[in-house]
Amino acid sequence: MVYVHESTRSIAFNGQKNYTFQRVEELLGIVPADVRPKHSNQPVRQGIPGTARYFHLLQEFEYDITNILEQAQLNAFHTKHDNRQHRCTGEALNIAQSMLQSIYPACPARIMLFTAGPCTIGPGMVVEPSLREPLRSHKDIDSETAKYYKKAKSFYDGLANRAAHNGNVIDIFAGCYDQVGLDEMSSLASRTGGVIILSDSFATSIFKQSFIRMFNVDSSPEGYLEMGFLASLMVKMSKEIKVSGLLGHAISSKGKTPSHVAETEIGIGGTSSWRIAGLRPSSTYALFFDITNTQPLTVVAGEAYPQAYIQFSTHYLHSSGFYRLRVTTIARPFDISNRGLGQPGQQSIVPTLSQSFDQEAAIAILAKLSIYKAESGLPIPDLTRWIDATLIKLCIRFANYIKEDPHSFRLPEAFIYFPQFVYHLRRSQFLQVFNNSPDETVYYRHVLMQEDTTNCSIMVQPTLTAYEIDKDEPEPVLLDSLSVNPNRILLLDTFFHILIYHGETIAAWRKQKYQELPEYENFKQLLEAPRQDASALLIDRFPLPRFIDTEARGSQARFLFSRLNPSKSASDIGSPVAGAVVLTDDVSLQDFMEYLIKLCVSKKAENIK
């Protein structure tokens, strides 16, 4: 059942039915919009029958809503021991959205869904109540044998579009050890600018702290919420370029300026403006542009390179109640059609591009684009080949080398780390779904699509810091199995996890409680240092990452070893080389780079598309 609470009572809806927007208005006694007074453009708070019974200012109704939450009880209907709980999540969301559309059309609002299991009845149903039917896996989805997947996804997609066009944000908080149908529901958050929090239960600090941080306020005296609503992003550009599309949590506003829009679409394309129902300080969007002039351009030595101009206009409703407009205009060189050094007396733009290349921004964009392709149905093997081809073409264009001579291969300084970023992207949970459920995969991808360059870089290639007893300061080390040492403590930051790993010797000393003896004060400080640094990382991170404290041979050390480059793998067991052995079939970074270089300098590279 779906309960809609009035001030003094609640109304129950049949969760197995799909109520229309008009039927919800009728049953709740809400006056339809077409018969309301038309003298005001503002949403009506009082005076319209049905309105004041369901929506109140918090300060007027805080005591009552607290009582409702405290008196909430488990489902009174008996559930068989071999059945899942009956949940009509889809219909509850439908009724909530219908109420907002009816009472507050085109008005900012947030719908927050707290779910501890999958929808088992009614529209949006993910799985049958019987536990004999397992939840769908990646294999079931890929082979199209997931019984309810397409129908449920279609239902939630339609609901997401309704919410986005009405300016409503939908947030999803999942607290369950099992899947809750997040894969099917993901568009609810991704198309409205909402957040997704995935935790084992609502009693964990991951949920509690993340939920509290949802309501962070700014530093102004008034303490406004760090939220924006009803946003629109418009891009204008000079005639030399056109916009291909946008990647991020938004929808197209259908506002198309033919002279500005490229024929080739990337992401949400076919337009030069987008609607964003909800904004946060970390909200980030990637835009793609196409050059209209395909003829090589050259510049006489001493003259300035031709520039293309791009202007971004973001208009949104601040939580203070006032609209704000932010305009950013940039100029960039745009001719990248010529790889060579140009004719005598002329110069190419390639040297300038190679010097201004941002490796972290590039991998963030490549990761977002890869996720978009994966979610659009491109099989992972084909996606991996596309990523490899993109890297090879980039290296061919900007590297210096002699044909058929791998030892001559040199990348400009601004490109040195990009191949290893790509290596870690290929192995990341964003593309490799093995050992992750569909809900986990969607969660990881959703977070990456909304984060900035720095956080995306950490997600793709986590940071690893080493602490040693004979060194005063911690030092960053390679994300490599060779960095694992018995006398070290390692701090791993994957964005989603903060992990402290104690080497064998350190772990043995800790078990013997040397840190409690006065003469081993330096060892006590060594143990405390990574915890203090981990605490600093946890302060502002959203969502709150999972904290893991483990040691050599510990069960949770797998979170570290799964991210390490396997320089020392199973084939090296018994070798005198230092470092931990990583049991994996993945190629090492060294082998990856060797093959990449050989391919780039070979004649085969000319056939790569």
Automatic annotation (TrEMBL):
Among the GO molecular function terms of this UniProt record, one is: metal ion binding
Q: Which UniProt keywords apply?
A: Cytoplasm, Cytoplasmic vesicle, Endoplasmic reticulum, ER-Golgi transport, Golgi apparatus, Membrane, Metal-binding, Protein transport, Transport, Zinc
> Where, per UniProt, does this protein localize?
Cytoplasm; Cytoplasmic vesicle, COPII-coated vesicle membrane; Endoplasmic reticulum membrane; Golgi apparatus membrane
GO BP: COPII-coated vesicle cargo loading; intracellular protein transport; positive regulation of ER to Golgi vesicle-mediated transport; positive regulation of protein exit from endoplasmic reticulum; regulation of COPII vesicle coating; reticulophagy
Domain Gelsolin-like, by residue range, is: 472-560
Q: What is its main location?
A: cytoplasm
Cross-referenced InterPro entries? ADF-H/Gelsolin-like_dom_sf (IPR029006), Beta-sandwich_Sec23_24 (IPR012990), Gelsolin-like_dom (IPR007123), Gelsolin-like_dom_sf (IPR036180), Sec23 (IPR037364), Sec23/24_helical_dom (IPR006900), Sec23/24_helical_dom_sf (IPR036175), Sec23/24_trunk_dom (IPR006896)
Record-annotated Sec23/Sec24 trunk domain positions: 11-215
Q: Which domain of life is it from?
A: Eukaryota
- Sec23/Sec24 helical domain sequence ranges: 358-457
Boundaries of every Sec23/Sec24 beta-sandwich domain copy: 228-334
Gene Ontology CC: one annotated term: endoplasmic reticulum membrane
User: Pfam family of this protein, just one?
Assistant: Sec23_trunk
Function comment: Component of the coat protein complex II (COPII) which promotes the formation of transport vesicles from the endoplasmic reticulum (ER). The coat has two main functions, the physical deformation of the endoplasmic reticulum membrane into vesicles and the selection of cargo molecules.
State the family it belongs to.
Belongs to the SEC23/SEC24 family. SEC23 subfamily.
Protein name stated in the entry: Protein transport protein SEC23
Species, as recorded: Sugiyamaella lignohabitans
